Amino acid sequence: MKYAIYTFGCKVNQYESAVMEKSLKDQGYTPAEEDCCPDIAVINSCCVTENSDKKARRLLARIKRDNPCCVTVLAGCYPQAYPGKAALLGADILLGSENKEKVGKLAAEFIESGERRLTVPDIPSGSSYERLGSADMGKTRAYIKIEDGCDRYCSYCIIPYARGPVRSRPLKEITAEAEFQSERGHKEVILVGINMSCYGKDIGLRLPDAVHAACLPENVKRVRLSSLEPELLTGEDISRLAAEEKLCPHFHLSLQSGSAATLKRMNRRYTPQQYREIVDMIRASFPDCAITTDIMVGFAGETEEEFLESCEFVKSIGFSGGHVFTYSVREGTAAAKRKDFIPADVAAERYRIMTGIISQLKADYYLSQVGNVREVLIQRRESNDYANGLIPQYVPVRIYGSKAQKHDLVRVRITLACGGDHCVGVEI
Ligand code: SF4
Question: In terms of domains, do 351 and 283 share one?
């Protein structure tokens, strides 16, 4: 039988889709060719915004309409956060944020018995990290999941309900997976989690312990951190991170807003001033680093003044890039009870303005790289003409006339910046 996996959302979901793929293959199923109807369709959903869960629901409805005999699995954050609603969508199997490694077995059981599985167990407090086997995602840079869950309860965010409490992966398993990935040629590994800054809270460790564990295998040449919550990083954490030579000097520090009043309503536990102090500490320890971020616009009650304050703060930090989101009401969160939602056209205009600011900052940062000597990890060759790759600071670099192949590390001098799209480098 042929399967297809459709993945929505974050890097953790992408990692878990790779684990599900392995589970399906272990059961003897094979991937469906592109544009062919699969016999088993697995939708690994996301529910961070209204739009993301709508996409998963629509896809499920389309598959059921076009291919009624297909076995359908709805997995991930949407059924975990909204199990009652998910059970009404007609999927054959619901899987929450856990047990994804069992998807192959569950599909086989359904095919054998015809019994639908429509309950999603809660993730109780005190649970430990769910062991998942290693899986090669087929990308140049390998993701390694080190943590699951979040207990911060920002007022707009459904994720604590979708992912449960903080569970941290033991250090030995992190090293073993880094080894596994490096044996498959991956020179860079990216540590991913739901709230990685909480790593170790449940097992008496800190994030730098996980980074050290990932750096241990000799053939891992770079370790990169995905998104971090800023206020949980202490000065001691930052000094310990700075001692790891393989750690990329790139920090994606979620800001959400540069207005103290908006942050307070969001139940974020830092002020813009505290955020700035953390950025200053990171820049003191990593003088050559890039800092990217996530920003939300149009949160409930965001006044014009607060929005402008946020814009000024973003400019003053000098981010090297970032993602801008418009606030989306998530049923079940504290903010969903508010009455002061921002009209869609105002939120759209703020999105346009903030995106413009981030694009300009990114272009400025790329320009600041001209003249620097950097190491590029080649991700692909577009043609015989050039190869594309990433420097540790997460800037894409194009190298013309290079013979370098995927996975090679190449030293270049950056000669040009093409806006905020990419830089051009020459091998040295
Ligand atoms: S830190 Fe806040 S925004 Fe991030 S996952 Fe946790 S509750 Fe959501």
Answer: yes
237 CA to middle of ligand 1, Å? 20
DSSP string, 109-134: HHHHH---B-------TT--PPP---
CA of 387 to the centre of ligand 1 (A): 37
Which residues fall within 8 angstroms of residue 189, CB to CB, at 6 or more apart? 141, 142, 143, 144, 178, 181, 182, 214, 220, 222, 223, 224
CA of 164 to the centre of ligand 1 (A): 11
Ligand 1 pocket test, candidate residues 156, 195, 252, 296, most atoms within 8 A of CB: 195
Do 356 and 245 share a structural domain?
A: yes
What letter represents residue 176's amino acid? Answer: A
Both 379 and 352 in one domain: the answer is no
Provide the domain limits for residue 402. Answer: 373-427
* Total domains in the fold of the chain: 3
- Say which CATH number the domain at 418 has: 2.40.50
Model's pTM, two decimal places? 0.94
User: Domain holding 71: CATH number?
Assistant: 3.40.50.12160
Instruction: Write the pLDDT tens digit of every residue in 118-170.
Output: 999 999 989 999 988 777 777 889 999 999 999 999 999 999 999 999 999 99
Work out which ligand 1 atom sits closest to the CA atom of 160: 7
Q: Which residue is closest in CA terms to ligand 1's atom 5?
A: 159
- How many whole angstroms separate alpha carbon 340 and alpha carbon 353? 21
Residue 130 belongs to some domain of the structure: no
Lining ligand 1 with CB less than 6 A are 150, 152-154, 157, 159-160, 194-195, 229
